[in-house]
Design brief:
about 550 residues; alpha+beta; three-stranded mixed β-sheet; 17 helices; globular
């Protein structure tokens, strides 16, 4: 099987099985799937969608089974409309068929839920509930059901450990104008948490009770796009209102406490990543020393974990040498991973959860002397990264309108990358969150949220050659106001908050404009000052401080 946590759809028939996934996983799927499966490369020309394939390959009166508890309402509605249009019935199965044959399936986690303090949250539960209720009134709805785990964790200022790398817990929530119910396994809640929820006028009910309770709801019930089809089907059709989660929209715009936490944790995280890259550069050139991709990943985690407020990684570290860098969401494993080649390109995509914020950063380095061709490709990735970082735009501009800025230097030579350019990032929450993003226009949806001051997103163009190498440059950016535009709607731009040097050896300044060169030099000066100050405070050795100075010299 594929050893990654990712989005994909499996279609299984009696004689064949197909897997749809996107460009991040093409190479990995081809490498790890056996002959029983056919890979369907989603979003590429000539690849049908799941419903298109089903309607073309099944007959009228055939039935397609689906687990309604694992299918969102939006996906369910799309599938049902397409299949019913040609006489194919979509059937909700009561028991998940995979679960019935999965002998060693993991049990439900039992980790305790814990409080996310006001010191890091910046806003109390009562205030958040009040804002949600205002949103309900504006939508002419009486109540709302929440199922996105990060929405619920944010709303109640609680965190958990039920999902690897994401500090969330399995739950549902119901809110109306006078009450709030949290559906969760009560054994995960301490007496302190129960009292805290009671003081917030929130009732606790068993997790599975949501499925019976929704059947008796009256009035207009707002269902978010991530609501599962089982809940959707249980509510009277006349009472259902489906739309973008107002909690997701509120959560996307960070308050000043959250923003300050994000800025601060990125200095610590950048210091850790810089120390790791210095270690790696030193180790791989020692005679007789072998460092493989897992060794590198483990070392990066070790250094990060020593920093203040570290909780966990925010995803599996992508530590990839040479050809493995072209596997966009690669996960190295002992026994099959590569030795990190001192004469090749190395890509490290990593991040961490801190109690005051979440990080996600990618740096691509060459551990020796890159070729002119490699420098050309990396510089084009860098140019796109800079052009997006320097963009100035009106409030409410959608990220899909800015995506081409990051791709243009590659487009100019007929190249592209098969993933989005940017995603929202939570504050000590999921490393991927919506509803803001920066992605190609063919992925635009009507539910995308325009960019606003206080949002945090990634800026991560890349370039990949299968069997050779991969390059990606990712930093997180804060949406900030400029001095341009009307007083009631100042134009916006991005401020890069990730603090880690960009490999100067891979940069060909002849391709760049003077403004792009100035951006790199100013960025490196900021990295040198902020990371250097932390190194001084922590008493780091002079060799590391000197290396930081060297790799942040002006171009």
């Amino acid at each position: 099987g594929i050893n990654a946590e990712y989005g994909g759809t499996a279609v299984v028939l009696m004689e064949k099985a197909l897997l749809w996934t996107d460009g991040r996983y093409f190479l990995q799927a081809e490498k790890q799937m056996d002959d029983n499966w056919t890979l369907m490369k989603a979003r590429l020309p000539g690849t049908p969608t799941e419903e298109e394939w089903l309607t073309a390959n099944l007959k009228c009166n055939d039935k397609v089974g689906i687990d309604p508890k694992t299918c969102s309402v939006t996906r369910f509605k799309t599938l049902k409309k397409q299949l019913c249009g040609v006489g194919i019935e979509l059937v909700s199965v009561e028991e998940n068929l995979v679960d019935l044959v999965w002998e060693d399936a993991p049990s439900m986690p039992e980790e305790p839920v814990f409080l996310h303090s006001m010191q890091n949250a910046g806003e109390g539960v009562s205030s958040k509930l009040e804002n949600v209720r205002k949103q309900l009134k504006s939508k002419l709805c009486d109540s709302i059901i929440l199922s996105a785990l990060d929405d619920i964790a944010w709303l109640y200022n609680l965190r958990g450990n039920d999902v690897n790398y994401n500090p969330v817990f399995y739950s549902f929530a119901y809110i109306d104008q006078t009450s709030s119910i949290l559906y969760v396994d009560e054994s995960k809640l301490s007496a302190e948490i129960k009292e805290y929820l009671s003081n917030s006028s929130t009732t606790i009910k068993p997790y599975e009770d949501i499925y019976s309770d929704v059947k008796s709801l009256n009035g207009r019930v707002f269902l978010t796009l991530s609501t599962n089809a089982a809940i959707f089907q249980a509510i009277n059709e006349k009472n259902r209102v489906v739309g973008q989660s107002p909690v997701q929209e509120l959560k996307a715009v960070k308050n000043e406490v959250e923003l300050e936490g994000m800025r601060n944790c990125h200095i610590r995280d950048g210091a850790a990543l810089t120390e790791y890259l210095h270690w790696l550069q030193t180790e791989v050139h020692k005679p007789g020393v072998v460092v493989d991709e897992v060794d590198g990943s483990d070392k990066a985690e070790q250094i990060r974990s020593g920093h203040d407020k570290f909780v966990s990684l925010s995803f599996d570290t992508i530590s990839s040498s040479g050809a493995n860098g072209a596997i966009i969401h690669y996960k190295p494993e002992k026994g099959s991973c590569l030795q990190i080649d001192k004469d090749d390109i190395y890509l490290c995509d990593s991040g961490a959860q801190y109690s005051d914020g979440t990080t996600d950063v990618t740096r691509t380095v060459h551990l020796s002397v890159p070729s002119e061709y490699q420098k050309d490709r990396f510089t084009r990735v860098l140019m796109g990264h800079i052009d997006l970082a320097m963009a100035v735009f009106p409030p409410g501009t959608k990220g899909t309108c800015l995506d081409c800025l990051a791709r243009r230097p590659l487009w100019n030579v007929g190249e592209n990358y098969q993933h989005g350019t940017g995603h929202g990032v939570g504050s000590f929450l999921n490393v991927h969150e919506g509803p803001c993003r920066i992605a190609a226009g063919n992925r635009m949806t009507k539910h995308e949220m325009g960019l606003q001051k206080g949002m945090i997103l990634s800026n991560e163009p890349g370039y990949y050659e299968s069997g050779k190498f991969g390059m990606r440059l990712e930093s997180l950016v804060e949406v900030v106001e400029t001095s341009i535009g009307p007083d009631d709607g100042k134009y916006l731009t991005f401020n890069t908050i990730t603090m880690a040097p960009i490999d100067r050896k891979l940069i060909n300044t002849k391709l760049m404009t003077s403004a792009q060169v100035d951006w790199v030099n100013q960025y490196h000066l900021t990295v040198r000052e902020k990371v250097g100050a932390l190194y001084e405070k922590l008493g780091k050795n002079q060799e590391l401080k000197d290396w930081l100075h060297t790799v942040t010299e002006p171009l």
